[in-house]
Amino acid sequence: MIIKPLSFFTLTLLSISVSAAPTYPIMFVGQIPTTAGFGSVAATFGNQQATLDSAPRGGGLFIRYPDGTVKDLTALAGYGNATGMQGANSIAVRDPSINWSGKKAVFSMAVGSVTKQYQVNSSYRWQIYEVTGLGKNETPVITKVPNQRADRNNIYPVYDSQWRILFVSDAPTVANSPHLYPPLDEYELSPSNSGIWLLGVGGGSVLNHAPSGDFKPFVDSYGRIIFSQWDHLQRDQEADADAMGTASYGTFNYANETSTAAILPRQEEVFPEPRASRTDLLAGTPMEGHNFNQFFPWQMNQDGTGIETLNHVGRQELGGSYMSRNRKDDPAVTDDYGQYPRYNKNRINNFMQISESPIQQGLYYAIDAPEFGSYAAGQIVSLLGGPTVNPETMTINYVTNRATASFSATPNVNHSGFYRDPVMLSDGTLIAAHTSQTNDAGQLPKYSYDFRIKTLKTVNGYAVPNAPITNGIYRDISWWSPDVLMTYKGNLWELSPVEIKARPIPPITQQQPLASPEQTAFANAQVDEIAFKDYLRTNGLALVVSRNVTTRDHNDKIQPFSLHVPSGTKTAVTGTKVYDVSHAQFFQGNLLRGYTGGYSNTPRAGRRVLATPMNGAGAVANNPANVMGKGVTQLGIDGSMAMIVPARRAMTWQLNDPSGNAVVRERYWVTFQPGEVRVCASCHGVNVRDQVGHAAPASTPQALTNLLKWWKANKQPVATP
After folding, report:
1. Is the pTM of this model over 0.90?
2. Which secondary structure element, helix H or strand E, spans residue 208, and what is its range?
3. Which domain holds residue 352?
4. Which of 499, 524, 545 corresponds to the end of one domain?
5. What is the pLDDT of residue 341?
C-alpha cells in the first residue's frame, strides 16, 4: 500500500482490514528504518540526537482507529514529505503521549533535511509539539509548544497531573551553559541526555540530573513520575585506557566548569573505586575492581522530590547480572551471582520502556533488552510495583519467553523475535512493536528489522505475536546523508503506540511533611521547619538525613555490612569483621572530563560528569568545616548523618573510616530539589529487616539536631547552581 501525500484540508483515511481489537484508537510513530544502531532514535541510550543518520526523515505521527483505518496526522497538519526526495519540510517523529482528557497529545518532532549532496546541517533538534483534532472526522492541528529551548533536543514529553509538560532534554543542567554542551555519558563519552525537566520559561528546570540519561518518563496512576534511568556510576573507561596505554582517547580534566577553565595534564578521579582494568591502582589495596551498568525503574514526586529506585528496589531483588564484591580481604563480603535465596526467581538485566496497565493499577510492563544490536528490543516483562509493595516481595513476570531477551542466530522454538514499546490496552489486549528477527542487527542484511505494532496472544504460557494493527505504511523516499544518496522502499517501522482514551487525572505528588523523629530534631534545635525549607529553596540547597548509617538491608553483602561508629552505635553480624565508620563524604557531579578523540589536541564539544568532593559554595558555607576534607561531615554517635547539599545536581556519597578511607560507597547518583529535606532511615534502605534482623531505625537523628543548631548560628545565604 502506498500512502500518497495528503493535503492540509483533506481527511484521508487508509482502509485496513484487521481484527476488531484494539477497541480504542491507537496513536503511534512511523519511522524510516535506520541502519545506525548506537545513538539512533531507536537505540537503548544516546537516542536524543536528531541527525539524519540517527533519525532518517520520511515518517510521521499516525492514528489507527477501531475500524482499522489509519490517519497520517502530521501530513494532514501540513508536515512531512511522504514520498520522493526529502527536504526542508521533511520530518521524523517520536514519543507521543496522550493528555488525560484523551483529546490532545504531545510528541517530539525534528523538521528538515539537507537538500543537496555534501550539505551538512548540525542544527536539527527534537522539539515538542502538541496535536489536537484526534477524532476520525476531525482535522488535526499541530502547534509547537512554547518556552522550550530551540537549540537543545527535547524528547519524551508527557503531561503531569497539572497538565504541565515533563520532558527529557540534553541541555546542560548548569545554567544551560553552552560550553558544557552536549553532556557526555559515563560509558563512551558519547552525547547523552541530562535528565528529566519541567517545561517553563527559559526552557524549564531540571527535576533529575542523570549523568548518563533518563528514558520514557510518565505519571502513573498514583501520581508518581516513573522512568528508566541508565545507572553507570563508575570511573571513565576511556581515561583508564589512556592511562594504561591501551588506547588513545585524549582524555583530560578541566579545572572547573567555567568556559575559561584550564586544561589539566591529568585524568584525576576519586570516586568510586577503580575499575578492574586499573591493576596499577588496585595493586596493594583490598579493593576489587568496580563495574556498574544497568537500566532500572525509578520514581520521583511531581515536584522532583523523593527520587529513588521504584519503591527503593535494589539489584539484590531484581538484578540478573553478576555483582562483584568491593573488597577481597573479607570472606563475609561476597560476590552475588544468584546464590542467595530471594522471593523473586526471575532475574532481569534491564527494565526499560515502562508503561502501566490501565486495568491493573501498579502493574508495569517493560523490556529487558540487550544494550546494542536490537534497537532496544528484547523480552517483555512485568512487575507489580504499587507504592505499598515491599521491594523484597517484588516479582518479575516473564511475559514473553526468556529466550527473547538475547540474540540467537539459530533460535529455538521459544524465541518468538524481539519486542519493544509494550502497552496493555484498556480492553485487556497487549500490544507491542515486534520484529521476527532474533539475531544482532549488525549480523543481518540491511533493513532486516521490520518493527510492526502487533496484538499479542498467549501460547504455552507466554505472549507471542498475533496480528499487526495495520497493513503496513509504505514509503519510497530518498535523502542525502550527506555524501551518499540514501533510498528506502518499504514499510515504516511502527513504534511507540499509545491508547487514545480519557483517563482519571492522578493525584499530585510532592514532598511530604517530616516524620516524627526529624520533627523532634527541629524542635530540639529550635529551628522552624518551614522557614528552614524556605531558606534552602531560596539558596538552591537541600538537606540529606539518615537516622543510622550502620544499618543496611540484609540482602546487601557485596560491601562491608558490620559497621561501628567509634564510641557509639554498632550494627554487626556475629563472627564477621567490624568496620569503623566515623564520617560521610558527599560528592557532586561536576562536568569536568573532556577529551580530544586522540586525533588532535583540540578538545571536542561537551563534558562528562566526574564525582568531585562537594564544592557548591552555598552548601560549603552552610555546613561546619571538617578537617577530613571537602564534603565531609561527622556521624552522630547514634550512627546518624545530616548534610546540606547542592540542589538540582547529581550527588553521591560514601562512609569513611577515621583515617578517611572509604568503607561503603553509594552506587547511584541522586538529585535533590531546592528546599527538599530527604530522610533515609538507613544508608541502604531496609526493606524488611537489616543485617542483624532489626526493622528500619525510627530514632531521632542526633546529627540533624547538631547541624541545625550550628546552622542557626552560622547560616550563610550564598546561592549555588
Report:
1. yes
2. strand 205-209
3. 26-233+292-499
4. 499
5. 82
